[in-house]
């Protein structure tokens, strides 16, 4: 069975475990700030590796010292699902090693 969208209540509950992430326009999103461009790019590269492993892919934006992550599940009609929450959690785990801080 295809992955089901989470309800707004379920999303709010899961956001409690994902500080810095927000829910708007049917997407989970977060921006991270880094010391400089190499650190930001390194974070993007590791996110890409995780996304290949999970077979779930966010929209990533790389700036000078910022990385934006925004994700929903295409196969669930562009809604937020447990797959998005899982990816966000995996990204949170690696962020400290890249020196990421809140925007
Ligand atoms: C065939 C492949 O598994 C699918 O296209 C995957 C790939 N990555 C994906 N990523 C996201 N964000 N949503 C999806 O529905 C999705 N589907």
Automatic annotation (TrEMBL):
<dbReference type="InterPro" id="IPR036428">
    <property type="entry name" value="PCD_sf"/>
</dbReference>
<keyword id="KW-0456">Lyase</keyword>
<dbReference type="InterPro" id="IPR001533">
    <property type="entry name" value="Pterin_deHydtase"/>
</dbReference>
<dbReference type="GO" id="GO:0006729">
    <property type="term" value="P:tetrahydrobiopterin biosynthetic process"/>
</dbReference>
<comment type="similarity">
    <text>Belongs to the pterin-4-alpha-carbinolamine dehydratase family.</text>
</comment>
<dbReference type="GO" id="GO:0008124">
    <property type="term" value="F:4-alpha-hydroxytetrahydrobiopterin dehydratase activity"/>
</dbReference>
<protein>
    <recommendedName>
        <fullName>Putative pterin-4-alpha-carbinolamine dehydratase</fullName>
        <ecNumber>4.2.1.96</ecNumber>
    </recommendedName>
</protein>
<dbReference type="Pfam" id="PF01329">
    <property type="entry name" value="Pterin_4a"/>
</dbReference>
């Amino acid at each position: 069975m295809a992955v089901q969208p989470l309800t707004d209540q379920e999303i709010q509950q899961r956001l409690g475990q994902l500080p810095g992430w927000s829910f708007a326009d049917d997407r989970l999103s977060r921006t991270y700030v880094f010391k400089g461009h190499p650190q930001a790019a390194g974070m993007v590269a590791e996110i890409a590796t995780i996304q290949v492993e999970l077979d779930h892919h966010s929209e990533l934006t790389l700036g000078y010292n910022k990385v934006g992550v925004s994700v929903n599940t295409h196969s669930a009609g562009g809604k937020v699902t447990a797959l998005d929450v899982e990816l966000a959690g995996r990204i949170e785990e690696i962020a400290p090693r890249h020196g990421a801080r809140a925007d």
